[in-house]
Amino acid sequence: MTLEPLAFWALSALLVGSALAVVLTKNLFHSVLYLALALTGTAGIFLALEAEFLAAVQLLLYAGGVVTIVVFAIVVTERLVGERITQTSRQIVSGVVVAGGVLIGVLTFIARAPLPATRPPLVADVTQAIGQLLFSRFVLPFELLAVLFLAALLGATYFARPDE
Amino acid sequence: MPAGMLPVGTSAMPLHAYLTLAATLFAIGLFGVVTRRNTIGILLGIELMLNAVNINLVAFARFNGDPAGMVFTVFTICITVAEVAVGLALVILIFRIRRTVIADHLDLLRG
What we know:
The complex is a heterodimer. Chain A contains six helices and no strands.
């Protein structure tokens, strides 16, 4: 008996609750804070799946980096206090229909698929295995990622340049 | 990871549970993308959807004992960060031109 079911259910409740808050709350700034909570909960799920390295990357890049950029964009485009930051949703019904349809489709597929119920024992250090794969089998995508980052860096700088 | 922190081979939560959680998060994110009017709100929904995919990748990698799925997760996380940076730069640029970030008001491509 491990603590994994307990952790899984607690993290699931946290994730679903904060994800619903992200899409439903009126205040955009609160929305971003709930997103940070959801991303941190995902890091917990990664820990439950014994992927410590990914949990750390998730916390650093997502919960740290992405949330910071989004908050920065909100500060630039909206007033933090006042009613400008409140956001409305529309077409709730069609949103529920689309999302519910996708959810039901995926869940019926998952329910039918033959999936393993138990995980194989860990044979080696997962972080070490990721590092070795990254620099052997996946070295080309890894290098292409550097090109992508360069393009994204230049593109973002170009788009957000000061007016001439 | 020191093997033995968890009793190996005896997982109480099956893969189904993780996939169901990820599907739920994906649907919630999709709902946000469809219903939000603010462009930044739409981006937040996309973040939730990509996050759900990451959970799927890690769960499959762990249950199949193949760390290649976790390498893919590293790639998706990095690409998501680049996507958010460029997307928000576009939002800021559009805000400068149109003074709005409401998606309904953006018709720059209308001929």
